[in-house]
């Protein structure tokens, strides 16, 4: 973060882990923390204890910090909500990153070093420009074997679990998949040939997808019959953001995900959400529509249980459904309820858009029915994220074949 150690305030209180081990903090520092997205954003100054200890997480917010934001956390939804002057703010967890952190911990159970409690109190010693801690057991200029091992583990945890490389299809760089570099040459060749043979399963752009047959799955809103339709007041955007919205609308029209609509009873606004790559994602504010829909109680899988089920697998392949939600058609009678307004006009979705209250449950119901014989045996599926797993490496291509054949039969 570029903050020098001189900014740390000395702390004499050690931290005690659940196992009873003690970690001595390097110091305390107050930093501004912002949660949410504009305008539902809140910023507070939080006191952090800085520790020199390897961890899958860069920062942990405790109960005092959450209380300062008056935040309510839901571990099930990986989300916290908190009040702001402009409404309720949300901070949504990164599901993929959470899985990676958890998987890394499971893969390296012995890579969490602990600092043992010392009977003698550590005496701080200050030198110009640097704060060091010295114990009676070793010189500050010499690293013990445990210290060297800990530093090595820290370095290993910063590296990727496994390096990957791109495999192009038909010499086209835009059509490629990633495979691990640790595969032996014979299996890598067989896997590459298999993937090229089944290249029709992969979608590189929206036109490659025909969508799920309505006979298999259709999303219905089931709006409460007594609910009063809501037309949101149109929001104003700047020139640059209107240009982004226009481009996105034109793209959605071209692939028939939306259509023009007249005299809609329900009308929502566009919301632009920043992506990690600096670009913008166009979403629709379905708050009012979602409030009028009953909750679909179809259960979503527990991520931690799914990760635990992969223990002992020699090989795994991760698949991400391309624009998964948009492959399910929206019931014709419900399409105009998803209407939204832009500078160019009013439109409604013909496919299930992201942001609807029960979209995740509908998609999970679809994949559960598709892969009912594979889930738990050689597959795990969480909404549009799929994992093909094999206890033995030599079975992996057969397991992938099962998955691909089901995907081909879907359209």
Outline the structure in words.
- This protein has about 400 residues and is of the alpha+beta class.
- It folds into three domains: about 5-110, no CATH class; about 165-195; about 220-410, HIV Type 1 Reverse Transcriptase, Chain A, domain 1 (Roll).
- Helix content is about 25%, strand content about 25%.
- It has nine helices and 21 strands.
- It has helices spanning about 65-70, 95-105, 145-160, 185-195, 240-255, 285-290, 305-310, 360-370, 395-410; strands at about 15, 20-25, 25-35, 40-50, 70-75, 80-85, 85-90, 125, 130-135, 165-170, 170-180, 220, 260, 270-275, 280-285, 315-320, 330, 340, 345-350, 380, 385-390.
- A five-stranded mixed β-sheet has the order 13-19-18-14-15.
- A hairpin with a 2-residue loop joins β20 and β21.
- Mean pLDDT is about 80; it is low at about 110-145 and about 155-160.
- InterPro entries: DNA/RNA_pol_sf, Rev_trsase/Diguanyl_cyclase, RNA-dir_DNA_polymerase, RT_dom.
- It comes from Sesamum radiatum.
- Pfam families: RVT_1 (PF00078).
- This is Transposon Ty3-G Gag-Pol polyprotein.
Count of folded domains? 3
Number of helices: 9
Helix share bin:
10-25%
How would a textbook summarize the main sheet?
5 strands, mixed
Q: Termini, distance in Å?
A: 49 Å
Trace the largest sheet across and list its strands: 13-19-18-14-15
Structural class: alpha+beta
Residue share in β-strands: 25-35%
By CATH reckoning, the class of the largest domain would read Alpha Beta
The ordered H/E elements are EEEEHEEEHEEHEEHEHEEEHHEEEEHEEH
* pLDDT < 50 stretches: 110-143, 156-160
Named at the architecture level, the CATH assignment of the largest domain is: Roll
The counted number of beta strands is 21
- The mean pLDDT is 81
CATH topology-level fold name of the largest domain = HIV Type 1 Reverse Transcriptase, Chain A, domain 1
Give the radius of gyration. Answer: 26 Å
Any idea what the shape is? globular
What is the H level of CATH, i.e. the homologous superfamily of the largest domain? HIV Type 1 Reverse Transcriptase, subunit A, domain 1
